[in-house]
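Hey team,

Filing this mostly as a record. A colleague (T.K.) asked me to run one chain through the structure pipeline before their review meeting, and I want the input and output archived in the tracker in case anyone asks later how it was produced. No errors, nothing strange. Just documentation.

Input sequence:
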Amino acid sequence: MDKKMWRIMDANVNRASEGLRVLEDLVRFKYDNSKLSEKTKQIRHNLRAILDANLLIRYRDADKDQGCRTSLGYVDLPEDVARPDERSGELSLVNANFKRVQEALRSLEEAGKIEVGYDVGKRFEMLRFKAYELESYYHKRLWQLKFVQGVYGITHDFSLIDSKESICPSSITDPIDQIRRMVRCGIQVVQLRDKSSNDMSETKKR
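Output structure:
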């Protein structure tokens, strides 16, 4: 039994489990989404069930983990330097933790095939694909929730500018002016309407 291979697997089981816990807590406590919370929890429990927890702990050697020192050192970086573990917002948090989970599962897949057996490696592979599927559903659900919480602006149709079909005064049919007004009012998302088949070159010039 290769002690260092078990160290790799222990670190990545913990890494993937921790990432899944962050994602699970977000949908459980912030979005009250029981279905998505259960899907995330199930992957985490299946992950923990593959390898013997006692063996993982036996070969753990946190004192010699060079990555720990590197990560803790980020706090000493100058303020104008981007830290690898910084989070710019909620979606940044989601993306970082899904990548953490998926990369850890890949490492477990490869190490498991060598140290434990091919079938074990394939079980980690299956969880990795489930994580990809979960990520897609997670983002769609997050977007739907955000969409109903805000006010979204819709411009007049670009194709009707200077058209006889326009029923509005020219002073309010200019979509660029409309967008400026919407932004001043705090609207963050604007739908740009243009039903014509012409390209947007003239619009871009405006």
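Quick notes for T.K.: Strands lie at 152-154, 189-191. Confidence is low (pLDDT under 50) at residues 200-206.
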